[in-house]
């Protein structure tokens, strides 16, 4: 049996168990334990029907209509999962509107003209226009995770919203685990779902422990209180020397780090000049960040499609041809062309305003602190003054979403959907476009990526975004975890797209 305990990283608690309201990767991972995906997408961006509730998906030639077949599945209380639950989910998504966490991704929900259930095992989706089928299946249909209508129908959408962190509300699920406790800031406790339709679990309890400081998780693994924990990069060398346990390096998640320049804040309107954003990107030595802050476990990122896997990279990106790259001389030229000149203190100025801003980073994150310090040094070398301020992670998220005039720049990670188009990221008014970025050409290229079959539109979008730098793209790390001796299946458990497969974990003596 696997002893209880799984560390998920310092300073990032689970605060929501509702997959329709998850605003962070940590919440998404926890909610995915309770509710099974309609379509499970593996690390190669392929649908794994062995782990999906759907058994088949078909699309019309023009990408306007879709038929989904469900396999037999049951909720943890024995009630069958049916197409009515998916229709119900879609109704909740529409009711939440822009409060829905995935709003705009895959065009959801506004792109859908009708979603009906011909019978209990089928749904039929008609879109308002013809689109790229690959895009809608991977980014649209994947959002239709069934919710238990027979339980949730007794609550209003506001009550559902208010209950998102209450374990008692989620007593019925159809995923591999069921939640028993959520103690924000302390831990979350799960147990196997006895009626789960997939593979059996090899443990009796599954605990996510939220440590308050880097290093505590490693100590907890050494003490036997945890079986696995993230390894903070600043403790990576130490973790390699710990006796008895193993450091396992994983493929990079489908994400990047980003410096978000706030163009909606009147004090930083200079970010609206593309030359300024390009100069910031050219001033930052990403390879040094990878080498020093990430111990070589990462890749530079210069556009909106991560380098691993290479499936969706444009020809230019595959060839390493980007509009930006480490070039301080070019950065200085761009800033001069934008009208900035050095003041007596060496900081660039234009019309009396310094090219200066404050960068918010999550408190206690050694990696983000090292990244910020490296960026601060690079920007100072080209005349840009950047101050760094730490803020508690969830507080920073709340400020980013709800107080656009109160922050100047943020350093954070961004996780992507299975198809890396930018409709939820950089389109005007998109759900995750929190920094006031707007560009008509960007909207055009995003529309091409979502509406035109094939990947030509996606290639045009990513190359244009590399030029625009709507956020300053930064390296993507490869995660490492410290694993107690005797625990196996870790690499299969952690899917780079953010969905966990707990059935893959087993200990010596409990092999599947």
Essential attributes:
512 residues, alpha+beta, D-Maltodextrin-Binding Protein, domain 2, Dipeptide-binding Protein, domain 1, Dipeptide-binding Protein, domain 3, 3 domains, five-stranded mixed beta sheet, four-stranded mixed beta sheet, 16 helices, 23 strands, 28% helix, globular, disordered N terminus
What this model shows, in words?
This protein is α+β, with helices and mostly antiparallel strands. The protein folds into three domains: 6-34 and 175-250 and 480-507, D-Maltodextrin-Binding Protein, domain 2, CATH 3.40.190; 59-143, Dipeptide-binding Protein, domain 1 (Alpha-Beta Complex), CATH 3.90.76; 255-477, Roll (Dipeptide-binding Protein, domain 3). It is built from 16 helices and 23 strands. It has a five-stranded mixed beta sheet. α8 (274-283) packs antiparallel against α11, α9 (286-293) packs antiparallel against α12 and α14 (440-451) packs antiparallel against α15. The longest helix is centred in the last third of the chain and has 15 residues, at 366-380. It is globular, with a radius of gyration of 23 Å. The termini are close together. The model is unreliable at 1-11 (pLDDT under 50).
